Amino acid sequence: MTLKQLEDLIEIDQDVTDNSFGTYYDKRTIRQLLDYGLIILDKPPGPTSHETVAWTKRLLKLPKIGHSGTLDPQVSGVLPLGLGEATKALGVLLYGPKEYHALGRIHSFPSKEKLEQTLQLFTGEIFQKPPQRSAVLRKTRTRTIYELEVLERKERLLLTRIVCESGTYIRKLYYDMGEFLGPGATMIELRRTRVNQFYESDGLVTMHELANGFSLWEEKGDERKLREMIKPIEFALSEIKSVVIRDSAIDAMCHGAQLAIPGILQISPNLKKGELVGIYTQKGEAVALAESIMSEKEICDATKGYGFETRRIIMTPNTYPRKWRTKPTPKD
Asked: Which CATH number does the domain 98-195 belong to among 3.30.70.1290, 3.30.70.3190, 3.30.230.10, 3.40.50.720?
């Protein structure tokens, strides 16, 4: 949880955290970051996303790394990687928009007016059928193009910027625009420049930089470069609403219990039923992802019951002490 998120929360109750357990999210050691960290990688063109993840596993000597949003082999750019337990939180990034810069060739010389008309036509909600070489069912579906603009044009070459809904096929978008223009269009090169709140301009990590940073830490104990490259996984959850809970509720949640009203300390304002939220400790550590089953007002007024339904546990059980009791087994 970022400091800004913490400042905006509504206080339901107060409690004190036990500093003997857990770690403040921004005070983790490198070893802890390698299990609860996020790397915004600059994927090179050539390897698949799966191969890129496999190389990163070997490089960082980790058994578990996951990525958010597959990129085709020849596509480069922003590829968020979750390390260790952080892989469980990456799904949040699939809800946000993506931005691409695409270079394509149109097979004719359309007028400026015709080109502008095409851009307007393909902005907003569009119908799209996945290409033949895709990992999903080839069924027509709707996707939203939030922004579509030509950054530069040289004869029949177009450099475009596209901000779109997750799951949009940019190559297919170019093909469809070409069909409307007449003779057709072909995408030549594609780079992803944004995934949700993570932009290329914020600084990406290359494989070479990661290898160098890890080597400096492992061999010389110099963690400065590696620490700059690995963000706490909580940064991935900064775009969704937040809930802070008591220490006594943490391990129960990690073992599958739902979050009851007495365990809640703070919530984001204007919380509505059905919203996805991040559940945090008082130290800002992500515990779980959950869906609200009460609104802000209902939670503030309630004294019992469950306010949230767990969707994904992020924190490892037994990170905090067990302070919950199981019901005794009835005797025969």
From this structure: 3.30.70.3190
